[in-house]
Specification:
Catalytic activity: hydrogenobyrinate + 2 L-glutamine + 2 ATP + 2 H2O = hydrogenobyrinate a,c-diamide + 2 L-glutamate + 2 ADP + 2 phosphate + 2 H(+)
Family: Belongs to the CobB/CbiA family.
Pfam family, one: CbiA
Number of domains: 2
Strand content: 15-25%
CATH architecture of the largest domain: 3-Layer(aba) Sandwich
CATH superfamily of the largest domain: P-loop containing nucleotide triphosphate hydrolases
Protein name: Hydrogenobyrinate a,c-diamide synthase
Domain CobB/CobQ-like glutamine amidotransferase: 261-440
CATH class of the largest domain: Alpha Beta
Strand order of the largest sheet: 4-3-5-2-6-7-8
Number of strands: 22
Largest sheet: 7 strands, parallel
Length: 464
């Protein structure tokens, strides 16, 4: 990779499997290192939106994703360097088990796994092991992970959910033969469990002050249970990375006119990637935030709207009760204002969600469903839209427990399998269940802002 050599101390926090406590340990590490006065850059392997929210609270700067499927191999290092500007150390939380990747026929086994990203970043791995039901067997487990892939360096182990002093002593003695140092042991602390619901952890933005307290408590636990000096020494063994930080301005063509683009936020719409707003700004937009739970009108001058993912199903009654904003959004759509909606955004623009009236922009009705729809998607655009011309190929992911009936309009958004088209393109509205990281398709930002700039100014002043 062309570029300069850049020094970024860094570690990747991984585990043998999901539910080992990676998020709690990672959040605690970020909080503890931040409390020491260090500037910590938080990152997350994979497409997940929720974990980076907790990381960002602990670090005081955005948590960012590193997902090879969504943005491509060549952008991983630039995005990492972009996110870690000015940081003393970077902490990257893995996804699933260390070697688990995309289960997709078009890629090699383990594609996009934590191991691949760690090798790409040449970062040492801290392996979090759930020791609750283990004793001497932990040594065989760690030895296997340390020797499985020579491109991945296991630099230390954190034992999680340790039961007692005796249990810890047995584990440490066993690991003395595994050749991997123990960086710390964390006891079972039930009160630090983060609440979950149908799509995983409850987003930090919904818990606000409580989430901040949890982060601080996790930091205190990590401070007392893990050798932070050893963690920092390990992070500093990572070699210089050669490359240039990702620059959103280099990915887009600026549009004149500075149109105002509102991005939905607040507790109901917490899923989004930081790069989306950065690309919109670089493309010439003035990006503002609107909270559909609290704001009864669009921000003054709004000519376009982005509604990402989240949990509108949890807040359906309150969203429905905000008639002023629902009306303003429907009016924006009717007047040709560009709207890009993903998953939760689709639910909000539908006729109704679980019987509650929504914005009524789309010819579909949505509802909760017991089945979880989850996975990476390779999609092709079926209709010209404010995001992409027909025929454009993108990589995204689905993550929801809701359904839309019908699932597609007369002019659908995407096709990604044999089940049929998906999503809606209605005028300048693009809505779908597909989540995208616009850093992987940056031309979308230019196209969307250009469409916003063509909207007559009076549209933006219709609701103040």
């Amino acid at each position: 990779m062309r570029g300069r050599a850049m020094r970024v101390p860094r570690i990747v926090v991984a585990a043998p499997s999901s539910n080992a406590g990676k998020t709690s340990i990672t959040t605690g590490l970020i909080a503890a290192l931040t409390a020491r006065g260090l500037t910590v850059s938080p990152h997350k392997v994979g497409p997940d939106y929720i974990d980076p929210g907790y990381h960002g609270l602990a670090a005081g700067r955005p948590g960012r994703n590193l997902d090879k499927w969504l943005v491509g191999d060549d952008r991983i290092t630039p995005l990492f360097l972009h996110g870690s500007r000015g940081a003393d150390v970077a902490v990257v939380e893995g996804v699933m088990g260390l070697f688990d990747g995309a289960a997709h026929a078009s890629v090699e086994p383990g594609y996009g796994s934590t191991a691949q990203v760690a090798a790409h970043l040449q970062a040492p791995v801290v392996l979090v092991v759930d020791a609750a039901s283990q004793a001497r067997s932990v040594a065989a487990l760690v030895h296997g992970f340390a020797t499985f892939d020579p491109t991945v360096r296991i630099g230390g182990v954190v034992l999680n959910r340790v039961g007692s002093d005796r249990h810890e002593a047995i584990l440490r003695e066993a690991l003395g033969t595994a050749g991997v140092p123990v960086l710390g042991a964390v006891r079972r602390i039930a009160e630090l469990q983060t609440p979950s619901r149908h799509l995983g952890l409850v987003p930090a933005a919904e818990r606000s002050a409580e989430a901040v307290r949890t982060g601080r408590a996790l930091g205190a636990v990590v401070e007392s249970s893990i050798d932070l000096d050893a963690v920092l020494r390990l992070a500093r063994t990572a070699p210089d990375l050669t490359g240039e930080p990702w620059d959103p301005a280099a990915e887009v063509t600026p549009v004149e006119g500075r149109p105002v683009v509102a991005v939905a936020g607040g507790p109901a719409f917490t899923f989004g990637y930081a790069e989306t707003a950065e690309l919109l700004t670089a493309a010439g937009a003035e990006v503002v935030t609107v909270d559909p739970l609290r704001d009864d009108a669009l921000p003054e001058g709004t000519r376009a709207l982005v509604v990402g993912g989240g949990f509108p199903e949890v807040h359906a009654s309150a969203l429905s009760a905000n008639v002023g904003l629902r009306t303003a959004i429907a009016d924006l759509a009717a007047r040709g204002g560009p709207i890009a909606a993903e998953c939760a955004g689709l639910l909000y623009l539908s006729q109704e969600l679980d019987g509650e009236p929504m914005c009524g922009v789309l010819p579909t009705t949505t509802a909760m469903h017991p089945k979880l729809t989850l996975g990476y998607r390779a999609a092709v655009a079926l209709t010209d839209s404010v995001l992409a011309p027909a025929g454009t190929r993108v990589r995204g992911h689905e993550f929801h427990r809701t359904t839309a009936g019908p699932a597609a309009g007369a002019t659908p958004a995407w096709q990604w399998n044999a089940d049929g088209p998906e999503g809606f393109v209605t005028g300048n509205v693009h809505a779908s269940y597909l989540h995208l990281n616009w850093a992987g398709s940056p031309g979308m930002a230019t196209r969307f802002v250009a469409a916003a700039a063509r909207v007559p100014q009076e549209v933006g002043h219709a609701h103040r």
